[in-house]
Amino acid sequence: MRLDSSEIVRVAKVVKDFRPGFGLRRKRVLHGISFSVREGEIFGFVGPNGAGKTTTLKVLMGLIRASGGEASVLGCDVRETQFRRHVGFLPENPYFYDFLTGREILSFYAKLSGVARTQRMDRVATLLDWVGLSAAADARLRTYSKGMLQRVGIAQALVHDPRVVFLDEPMSGLDPIGRKEIRDLILRLRTEGKTVFMNTHILSDVEMVCDRVAIIVDGRITYEGATEDFLEGDAREADVVVAGLPPETGARIEEEFGAALRGHADRIEMRVAEKRLKEVLRTTLEAGAEVISVTPHRVSLESIFLSAVEKGRVEDAGR
Amino acid sequence: MTSLARIWTIATNTTREAVRSKLLYVLLFFAVALILAGVFLSALSYVESERILQDVGLGAIRLFGVAIAIFVGVNLIYKEVDRRTVYTILSKPLSRTEFLLGKYVGLVLTIWMQMAIMITAFVGVSLATGAPLTPAHAAAFLLTGVELALVVALATFFSAFTTPMLASFFSGGIWFVGHLTRDLRDIGGGSDLESVRRFTALLHRVLPDLESFNLGIEAAHGLPVAAADVWLPLLYGAGYVAILLVGAATLFERRDFR
């Protein structure tokens, strides 16, 4: 596999089939997905439940074997193990040995990750401090709350100072303060030059922290690119209110410009992509209608995401 | 960090889990209680009271050892996958085989530590009642330790791909039949039917011959034990364990953790 020197993660035409049960037909959950993550960026992997986000992450972590295609992290095939010295992973709703204390579990993971004995306890203490668990460090994990376990999860992913960190729904189960703290931690990782791959469906977090995103729907990538480009493209829209629009012109605007029309002839509201605005206004005025107002409107990532999901499903149904 | 160091890290953590588990202390308590109860059972007999005392003690060590081996062994891998603790561990620079071997070694060490406590109780009771302790006892304990390591390997093998319920059933069943295969072979060998002779001989070859690890009679009666009766079962046990662990690791390497 050819690897661009700046590419930390590369997924090329990865396919995954699962057999739902003994004797049943195989079900394809990843349909030849491809994307890459560059060094030093925060990459958001976004998709609805069941789209294949966690399956993709598990393929990258070697927990699931791909049925086809190639996947590499730091230039190494994901079936190898030694590159994981430079990789941190937080699974969704992580579970740990609850008979250990916070300090013991981090020490255990640090040891497994090859952190030298002389640095181990210092590193563990630093991480406990980072995630705000110093006070509970010597309590058994069975006494920890869900939010505290999530923090342990973050700490174990970072305990060996990895180059790239994979986070599966890192804000899951956290209160607003906890979410902000984790968000700040992710941004801090960027300033330290780490690469972060984040599975999430909390789109406000994606907007706030991710440099680039990929959207996966039903096991297919429907978008990959910079978060900003995403918002700059179809993301800017305008709400146009017109009066006296002939029905045939309204139908034409809907069909040609992809505008969504509401209301009746006296007062029709249209939501139009900003780049098509001039054409829509010209068509409206030429039809003898009156333009009452034009209001620029910035679409949230959520609505873009929903339309990407919808588009992906329509394409899927057409196959 | 070397492969051995990673296996040892998993092993010591597995042992630590057992040391902090209350359930194993309960089992150990009953085992020691049964060994001590041998004093009262032997007092009921007019003859060979020392032999009864030691029969009960050796039997208790074996039975409780097997119970712990199967009970903990069948959950060894299943629990890690079911509770998803395996996700974070296997994301570290550690192969699945190293993880499996670490879990196995950890459980065997745990069982040997518990055996050591039971043996201490056995020796204490024997000394207190004046029952003889011979080199045959040491050989019997050693081979019981090997048998338990084999039972843990069986439980680990089944734990690598099936549920604890089925793994208990298979492991317990093989342990039970494993103590009969030698007798079955001998009985089948006297049959007029070629197919019966072949089948019982095959059964003896494929399933573990666990009676080869049983020196309880020699120990309780103070009979001499030939060196070959120790090292041959030792080699046999080690080979059988290796085959089971290779099988378990092969299956575990192919699994998807969904």
Description:
The complex is a heterodimer of chains A (319) and B (258). By secondary structure, chain A is of the alpha/beta class. Chain A folds into two domains: 225 residues, Rossmann fold; 63 residues, Ribosomal protein S10 (Alpha-Beta Plaits). Chain A has ten helices and 14 strands. A six-stranded mixed beta sheet of chain A has the order 6-7-8-3-9-10, with helices on both faces. In chain A, strands 2-1-4-5 form a four-stranded antiparallel beta sheet, with helices on one face. Chain A has a four-stranded antiparallel beta sheet with strand order 12-13-11-14, with helices on one face. In chain A, helix 5 links the parallel strand 7 and strand 8. The mean pLDDT of chain A is 86. Chain B has one domain. Helices cover 79% and strands 0% of the residues of chain B. The longest helix of chain B is centred in the middle third of the chain and has 34 residues. In chain B, 45% of the residues are buried. At the A-B interface, strand 6, helix 2 and helix 4 of A face helix 1 and helix 5 of B.
